[in-house]
Amino acid sequence: MSSFLDVSKKSLRYLFGKQTADTVGNIPRRFLKAFLAHGVEASQIPRLLPQIKFEDVQSPEKLLAALTPEILDQTAQLFGIRSQWLAGIEDQIYSGFYAYKRPRELLNHVAPLCLPDDQWLNFPLRVLATTLNLDRNNSAQQLLIPIVVERIAELGEDEIFRYHIYKDGFDWSYLPARVELKAVARLLFKKAGIGVPLYPVSPKQMDDILKGRAFPRQHLDGCLLTTPSLEDFALSKEESGIAKEVEELPAVLDYIEEHNLQSFSFPRADVLEPDGQPAGHVGSSSPPPTLSKANTLRPMQMDKQLCQDTAKKLWAQYPTMTIAEMYRHNELRQAGGKNYTDKTLRSWLSPVAPPHVRAKRGRPKKDEAT
Q: Are 86 and 207 in contact (CB under 8 A)?
């Protein structure tokens, strides 16, 4: 790649000067980087962009010749990034979203992702934080970035996501910002049964993401059951055995009432039992919800549903079985699990595992009752 770019830059510098040469030379590099930063290898690009052929990604020269402004714009839309960055004009990758003092903006963004076509998309809201030891009594800056995670494709076993970054710079040490995040987390957990995992980043990484100059995927590609998670700070002791900062819960409830958020509804709530558990969850007397598009499910989606149904049946018989034991169980492997990695199976089984089983990854039992 470097030899081609060097030759191209020399020609462009002669015709148009150094700045134009550097900008054009950056286009294929940034185009590839955008896909790699979302977990898409160069050989997989034609699956997402049919205009790009396999031979186009064999060299930077061929790729540069194949790229057009329309393809760059399509790529920018696919990943929610800026066309100006792809074109090598600017260094800011993301424009970003803002929700401070406007909690419905964030809730409206998350709500449609709570019930995707294949029934369960886990954790559509995730939060990066400069510390996991969040403390309302600590006056030091404790920054958080809410990120809405939207699935846009499946490539084999891998799910490809688009990331919507909220660049408000929420600071846990600042009461209004803290209470707003707690209110959002409480509503997600109580009304949709969805947790909000927390992931640590360094202050430098936080600054880069807030400025829109870094991709967040590498920081979000961890276990979805984190200790702590954001909803732990928004529940009472009766609602969760690991509730934190419960003294501030009245302020959170007042905030929800003040902004009329108690009336907010999530599509996923339609398939929850009165106690907040998914219909058909272990311990529920109701059958699992059926998918209106079941006849259009892809093979991987059908395998996922079959594995989840098998796991729920086995957990009803063996309630102490861990998630790892479950995805290694012979019956589940025969149901289709043998074709997928442990990581994929864990992501499928975690949502349907009994609460006390999900808590075995270092988390005490959390009561999900409403």
A: no
